């Protein structure tokens, strides 16, 4: 591997946005990279606790979860609500680190998409190990090593999978990272002609709105520095993808596109209630 990566990428530093803006920015970046913008690595947080529904999840499941847990949803409630453009289970975004990686890619290249998914999770697991946190992919663990939290079956997915929990972090897929039996990282991908978006959530600390889901700080039993993880990931993803991440920002056309996407989709009640 060469010392200086041949490809120049854009790094967007950690910043918090509201729910609709976070989803819209990721979508705007997907379109922008497909049109020729540089590969982009973005770290972000959430201005308010947010429940993001997977694209295919019915709104009724979110309402049922809120009723069971006593959480009030919406702009005037305790927890915002947004529907993602990616699939999977609902995520309670609160005390977490979220990242998105947007790469130019041929949509037919299934192997590259799968490798990207694994490689990002491998980089995060490796950096967590440096920090003293042992995170392993679910596929490498026996079921006895994984904590299965109880849940109300009325909150399971209605899309033909009655045994699947409503919340993403109570589900398990092969590349999910597991610490002390609990899932701490899950990701999803969306592809378009010419580019791939992968965004993922790392549970940093437990949320009072979903206290059955411990974060890595609770599982490690000590305070961890998020900046250390972010900077370490930049280095690992630079080496892994041979991309030199240079500090940057959203371009004016991307900001304009994100605002339009908020109006059309993520900030629009018709989008949220479409299923």
Structural class: alpha/beta
CATH topology: BirA Bifunctional Protein, domain 2
Largest sheet: 8 strands, mixed
What is the terminal-to-terminal distance?
A: 47 Å
* CATH architecture verdict: 2-Layer Sandwich
Low-confidence stretches: 149-160
Look at the structure and give the CATH class.
Alpha Beta
Strand percentage, roughly? 25-35%
Mean pLDDT: 91
SSE succession:
EHEEHEEEHEEEEHHEHH
Dominant shape = globular
List keywords for this structure.
275 residues, alpha/beta, BirA Bifunctional Protein, domain 2, 8-stranded mixed sheet, 3-stranded mixed sheet, 7 helices, 25% strand, globular, ligase, aa-tRNA-synth_II/BPL/LPL, Biotin/lipoate A/B protein ligase, ligase activity, BPL_LPL_catalytic
Describe the 3D structure:
- By secondary structure, this protein is α/β, with parallel strands linked by helices.
- The chain has one domain (7-272): 2-Layer Sandwich (BirA Bifunctional Protein, domain 2), CATH 3.30.930.10.
- 32% of the residues lie in helices and 25% in strands.
- It contains seven helices and eleven strands.
- The strands form two sheets. The protein has an eight-stranded mixed sheet, with helices on both faces. A three-stranded mixed sheet has the order 4-3-5, covered by helices on one side.
- Helix 1 packs across helix 6 and helix 3 (110-130) packs antiparallel against helix 5 (226-241).
- The chain starts with 6 loop residues before the first strand and ends with a helix.
- Mean pLDDT is 91; it is low at 149-160.
